[in-house]
Amino acid sequence: VYVQINKAAEDEHIKELAKDFFRKLEDHDEQTLSLWQQFRDFSIEEYIRIYKRLGVRFDEYSGESLYQEKSQEVLKMLEDKGLLQKTVQGTGVVDLSEKKDLSSFSTVMRSDGTSLYITRQVTQPVLNLAAAVDRMNKHQCDTMIYVTDKSQSSHFEHLFQMLKLMGYDWAERCQHVSFGLVQGMKTRRGEVVFLEDVLNEVRARVLQNMASAKTTKQVEDPMDTAEKVGLSALIIQDFRGLLSSDYQFSWDRALQSRGDTGVFLQYTHARLCSLEQMHGNEQLTDCNVACLQEPEAISVLQHLLRYDEVLYRSSQDLQPKHIVSYLLTLSHLAAVAHRTLPVKGSPPELAQARLCLFQAARSVLASGMKLLGITPVAQM
């Protein structure tokens, strides 16, 4: 619909009709508002349903409608502080240049008097001054993080600059986390890619792989397992690099069971779960770590010690790639240790120490996966 309406808007008559409709919305026309409310309700219903599959839940849906009246307060505030300037065309702008020569500015009001994105619209990806002030007053945030695609970067620079000009010191605590484009993602339904189609397709592909793999165990709910494994494949492919980098999507690469993939993380976790089950799922707290002398065991131990450092780094720059890289390395190290350090048949003290090591590896692997929005599976 969005693509179609943008094509239609090339017609000047259609463009005028759209402006009239927008003006009616701002004037609280009953029929127009009723139609808008229906669209909004349908949209939120769908957001809740689809995001639930990703394990994502929102506490608030504060769309642009919430800030319609407050945007006028913001315009008045800009005016009172002498920040609002009128151009020859009649548009309202805020000068953001150092020399105050309008070499950098933000347009905040159209010439017809209706407010623009920056002062009103808060639906993603464009958020605004009125929303920022309201949210900070309401939530008293330590940090306010905006997550949108990187094409919005200059918009957020302007937004934070204007908040500072308006005298809000907390603008320093606002941060934009930008993400890049996913290239080459196509589903069987064609060029336009819907999230639901992608989720359904990755689940179907994992189910197919599970059915044809010789090592697949009988799982209670294959569909649920395929959903979790498929999601982990998508998330790891998305989070492996810098968030702001564009990347080429590949179904084959994402779904490899051997390699740096979400499927490999799940496979490693399931194997470690299986090992624990074989030995009674007992939580070990007392073991002689000095028994673990082999290089493979020491490599796993040393890597486990780095977990808090990796979490701290990710918390500082808000990049999940550090956690992804750490978990993939842990999985490879654990896989090697699993092959070379048998628990069964080893002397009791050594067996206990090795089992304790594998439990620790599985626990950290599960913890890191959950942080990335992945649900670890015990069987696959």
UniProtKB/TrEMBL annotation:
List the keywords (alphabetical).
Aminoacyl-tRNA synthetase, ATP-binding, Ligase, Nucleotide-binding, Protein biosynthesis
Its recorded reaction(s) are: tRNA(Arg) + L-arginine + ATP = L-arginyl-tRNA(Arg) + AMP + diphosphate
Q: What is its EC number?
A: 6.1.1.19
InterPro entries xrefs: Arg-tRNA-ligase, ArgRS_core, DALR_anticod-bd, Rossmann-like_a/b/a_fold, tRNAsynth_Ia_anticodon-bd
Report the enzyme's class at the first EC level. Answer: ligase
Q: What does the entry give for GO biological process? A: arginyl-tRNA aminoacylation; mitochondrial translation
Q: What GO cellular-component annotations does this UniProt entry give?
A: mitochondrion
> According to the lineage, what is the superkingdom?
Eukaryota
Q: Which residues belong to any copy of the DALR anticodon binding domain?
A: 265-380
A GO molecular-function annotation: arginine-tRNA ligase activity
Q: Which Gene3D superfamilies match?
A: HUPs (3.40.50.620), Isoleucyl-tRNA Synthetase, Domain 1 (1.10.730.10)
Entry-linked Pfam families: DALR_1, tRNA-synt_1d
Q: What does this protein do?
A: Catalyzes the attachment of arginine to tRNA(Arg) in a two-step reaction: arginine is first activated by ATP to form Arg-AMP and then transferred to the acceptor end of tRNA(Arg).
Family membership, please give it: Belongs to the class-I aminoacyl-tRNA synthetase family.
Q: Report what the protein is called.
A: Probable arginine--tRNA ligase, mitochondrial
Q: Which organism is it from?
A: Dryobates pubescens (Downy woodpecker)
